[in-house]
Amino acid sequence: MAIVDALLPEFDHEMTVTRKVLERVDDTQFGWKPHERSMSLGRLATHVAEIPNWAHTILTEPEFNMVDGTYTPAAAATTAEVLDLFDRQVKTTRGLLAARSDAELMSTWTFKQNGQELFGMPRAAAWRSWVMNHLIHHRGQLSVYLRQTGSKVPGIYGPSADER
């Protein structure tokens, strides 16, 4: 079995579940924050929607050099814009992943900050950490935001209290 054959079903499942969570975001509450240092609901939803695009660099470039002050986060003003961003990112990312060979997925990808190498790891490991695990982490935060703002939380790994 090819590595991609193990990664694609997980990707498809997690993206389906993530879209359900994003669909529940109430854009009239985009400015809500649980704490002054937290992201707003709208910023967090947009961040979740943009994470699949991070796979582009991991899957197509040998390295990424994060230069302080150069990251511009995606911006969305409505839930419809968040969903459109997410759907486009998922479609593109799935195509990139499906086209990768085992050799490509096992080749080293390097993360640098301001030119200094922080780490290198196989692309498949970077994919898991920087795309999948990162997205799942923030999706969990988003589900808590939904609960705190009175929105119904969809089931993620089974039914939620709102779906019983």
Topology:
Blueprint: H1 3-23, H2 41-50, H3 54-60, E1 63-66, H4 79-98, H5 102-106, E2 108-113, E3 116-122, H6 123-148
Parallel strand pairs: 1-2
Antiparallel strand pairs: 2-3
Helix pairs in contact: 1-4, 1-6, 2-4, 2-6, 3-4, 3-6
Strand order, largest beta sheet:
1-2-3
pLDDT averaged over residues: 96
Q: Number of helix segments? A: 6
- What characteristic shape results from the CA principal axes? globular
Extended strand count: 3
Order of helices and strands: HHHEHHEEH
Beta content: 5-15%
Describe this structure in words.
- The chain has 164 residues and is mainly α.
- A three-stranded mixed sheet has the order 1-2-3.
- A hairpin with a 2-residue loop joins strand 2 and strand 3.
- Helix 3 runs antiparallel to helix 6.
- The longest helix has 26 residues.
- The protein is globular, with a radius of gyration of 17 Å.
- The model has no long low-confidence stretch (mean pLDDT 96).
Quick summary of this structure?
The chain has 164 residues and is mainly alpha-helical. Helices cover 54% and strands 10% of the residues.
Characteristic key phrases:
3-stranded mixed sheet, globular, 54% helix, mainly alpha, 164 residues, 6 helices
